[in-house]
Specification:
The chain is mainly α. The protein contains four helices and no strands.
Length: 130
Amino acid sequence: MHDENFSEVQKLIALKRHEQPDDAYFEEFLDEFHRRQRQELLQRSSRSLFVERVSTWFSGTNKWSFVWGGGLAYAVILLAFVLWPRVDEQNPTEIPNTPVNHVDPVDPVKQTEGDMLTPDKERKPVRETY
């Protein structure tokens, strides 16, 4: 029985070997294939499409260019922090030395002389820069 089935299968395969589909079959197959591809793309989420495109872009680029670019960006930021001029707010570089005119609350016309807050005229202002 087994040999009989085997010989029938061999005859069937030999007959099928000479059969060929016509050209319309291949064109319909191609149209159906493209339609299914488009339908599959429409069913996918935009996030998965974005991830696929980004991963495809990254797979085509050289990984070392990103390493060098990141290192260069880190060096520029570090250099900016090191070379940025610092302003010391506790010790300003320029001391304002404008004279202060005080007004007596009792007699606003009379200006006070010898007030403790007025600068000494004979002393030069102290300007120290560090």
